[in-house]
Amino acid sequence: NPPPPDIDPIEPDTRGVTTIRALMEKHRNNPTCFECHRKIDPLGLSMEHYDYIGIWRDRYNKKLPIDGSGKMPDGTAINGPTGIKQYLSTRPEQFTRCLTEKLFIYAMGRRISFIDRDDIDRIVAAMPRHKYGLRELIQQVVASEPFHTK
């Protein structure tokens, strides 16, 4: 999501910044940005080993090492893609709800509305018995009433 409409874009003082982590730390020093970025930056920094086209790297431009570690708002330490996977695997319902909402947005070609909540709740509630399988989740979205009446 973009910043709220009442938040002016900021350009942090980036002098001396040599890594994405250092840039994010300067950005989080702005109290207006801190609340959201404390939640999303650890996930992004954990994926920092991948460059812009998805190739794994251990250093920035063969120089500075990449630090893929972070700490989630609840204090859980994560490190790299494996750390994200471990973190999300302990929260299957939250992950499933988020993924279901994103699939709904894609499948419906529109934003989620209030009337979609019951269908999303039903799908999320059904997923434990299907072991949270992606194939089943997609089938549930496609079988939903909003999908058939869009």
Mind explaining what this structure looks like?
The structure is a single chain. By secondary structure, the protein is mainly alpha-helical. The protein has 2 domains: 20-89, no CATH class; 92-148. 51% of the residues lie in helices and 7% in strands. The chain has helices spanning 20-28, 31-46, 80-89, 92-108, 117-126, 134-143, 145-148, and strands spanning 59-60, 64-65, 69-71, 77-79. β3 (69-71) and β4 (77-79) form a beta hairpin. It is globular and about 55 Å long.
Provide a concise account of the structure shown.
Residues 2-59 form the DUF1588 domain. This protein is mainly alpha-helical. Helices cover 51% and strands 7% of the residues.
> Helix and strand succession?
HHEEEEHHHHH
Major sheet? 2 strands, antiparallel
Cα distance, first to last residue? Answer: 24 Å
Radius of gyration: 19 Å
Number of domains: 2
Count of individual beta strands = 4
